[in-house]
Amino acid sequence: MKPKMYRRDLVTKDDIWNAVIATISEYDYPTRNQPADEAFLAFQYYSELESGGHEILMNWFSGHIEEVGVTSFLDALVGSLEAIGAYDYAAIEKNYGQEMWQKFKALENGEVKEGEFYAVVEQADWEYHQLDGRIAELLETYFVDVHMELIDVIQD
């Protein structure tokens, strides 16, 4: 069931940004609702990369990745990033996602040294940061576009 909000509370892009984040924060991913899943994954990606990079992303989603498989997870993540127009970010995940996960698991199992894992993570993080935070603008635009699919907006 979608939350209900009044139009008067969703006037600015910031209002919509906050409302969508509050809404998707309550979801149990996956929701089986395409815009909700895309918004959730793209926002979690943005949040984790901004707070600690790809290492944090791997940690945050590790249980889910183990459950669905890295290919399925990366397909969903790349699809979400492409859905919001973040093609450069999607390319980073296409280029490094599989290798990062393999190194993450190998490090966890004591099969590689930390340096092997961090070499891949640091390169992916560097490429992410070269994009100068454009993902925030893309997310905001996407949230504005789909907020009525995620929230029942009551006209005042």
Compact summary:
This protein has 156 residues and is mostly helical.
Describe the structure.
- This is DUF4375 domain-containing protein.
- This protein has one domain.
- The chain is built from 7 helices and 2 strands.
- The protein has helices at residues 13-25, 34-51, 54-68, 70-83, 87-108, 114-130, 134-150; strands at 4-6, 152-154.
- It has a two-stranded parallel sheet with strand order 1-2.
- The two termini are 21 Å apart.
Helix-strand blueprint:
Layout: E1 4-6, H1 13-25, H2 34-51, H3 54-68, H4 70-83, H5 87-108, H6 114-130, H7 134-150, E2 152-154
Parallel strand pairs: 1-2
Helix pairs in contact: 1-2, 1-7, 2-3, 2-4, 2-7, 3-4, 4-5, 5-6
**Oligomeric state of the chains?**
single chain
* Inertia-based shape: elongated
Secondary-structure element sequence? EHHHHHHHE
Spatial sequence of strands, sheet with the most strands: 1-2
Mean pLDDT across all residues, rounded?
Answer: 96
Q: Biggest β-sheet: count, sense, barrel?
A: 2 strands, parallel
Q: Give the count of structural domains.
A: 1
Based on secondary structure, the structural category is mainly alpha
Q: What radius of gyration results from the CA coordinates?
A: 17 Å
* Strand content range: under 5%
Output the number of helix runs. Answer: 7
State the end-to-end distance.
21 Å
The helicity comes to over 70%
What's the count of strands?
2
